TrEMBL record:
InterPro entries on file: UstYa-like
Pathway: Mycotoxin biosynthesis
UniProt name for this protein: Tat pathway signal sequence
Family annotation (Pfam families): UstYa
Transmembrane regions listed in the UniProt entry: 45-64
Assigned protein family: Belongs to the ustYa family.
GO biological process: mycotoxin biosynthetic process
Keyword Kinase: no
Organism: Purpureocillium lilacinum
Keywords associated with the record: Membrane, Transmembrane, Transmembrane helix
């Protein structure tokens, strides 16, 4: 005898599917008194793709945000940071205004880069309270220290113009004090370069004249807006400060 609930000519598997429709299309929630239909594969795939796309968008936005070198450390000039694309000069075939033998114009340009000072509250390292104030601190931004070091090394290349920066005395014996200062400056700049770790790509091209591969140094970099930072430091300059007056550490 055939099954009374299904035609005899149906395959056994087809009969089972007809006789047990709820086995695959619905699931009873125990104790709930209602039924839930499982999500279709199309619906699940749609949700998966949507979630993946949303996650990728969020990650791209996070990665696109510029991150300050000082991380979570406070800097009184941190609010000034903006970024802009800057093409570096070749420095061999395209001299900048700061390059070449020194003269009054170049010396003034170098001095104006870092002859500044600033304020200091909330810094990761404590600083000294300015005498005669209610707790104002004294700091200088690291960028200006590094520029001072760089300018000192520049001056050491021209002892005839800057004898005080030469590592040799007039009798050609080495000046130990200036040697220590230059050594300090070189390592300070090393630390600064490694800290910033500029990832601008310097690409190589074939030089037909030299018959060899040569680097193209006129490359694009993402730079901070130095002039805004310098102007802020100038506005917060501390004139006529007597460095010989003692003080105390900030709280």
């Amino acid at each position: 005898m055939g099954n009374i609930d299904a035609p005899e000519f149906l395959h056994e598997d087809e009969q089972r599917l007809l006789m047990e429709p709820t086995a695959r299309s619905e699931t009873r929630i125990e104790g709930a008194g209602w039924w839930r239909r499982p999500a279709s594969r199309t619906h699940l795939a749609f949700l998966y793709v949507t979630n993946v796309v949303t996650l990728l968008i969020l990650l791209s936005e996070i990665m696109a945000r510029p991150r300050p070198v000082f991380g979570d450390f406070y800097s009184p000039a941190g609010h000034l940071i903006k970024y802009k694309e800057t093409v570096f000069l070749d420095n061999i075939y395209q001299l900048s205004p700061f390059q070449g033998p020194p003269d009054e114009t170049k010396d003034t340009m170098w001095d104006l880069l870092y002859r500044t000072a600033a304020d200091a509250k909330g810094l990761p390292n404590r600083t000294m309270v300015l005498p005669g104030t209610d707790g104002d601190g004294i700091i200088s931004l690291e960028v200006f220290h590094q520029l001072h070091c760089l300018n000192s090394l520049r001056k050491s290349l021209y002892p005839e113009r800057f004898p005080d920066y030469s590592v040799f005395f007039p009798n050609h014996t080495r000046d130990p004090g200036m040697s220590v200062h230059h050594d300090h400056c070189i390592d300070r700049l090393r630390q600064g370069v490694m800290c910033a770790s500029d990832l601008g790509a310097m690409y190589w091209t074939w030089n037909e004249h030299r018959r060899m591969w040569r680097p193209n140094m006129s490359t694009t970099h993402m730079c901070r807006n130095f002039e805004d930072i310098r102007q802020w430091a100038v506005a917060h300059n501390l004139p006529n400060w007597d460095e010989t007056v003692p003080s105390r550490l900030t709280d």
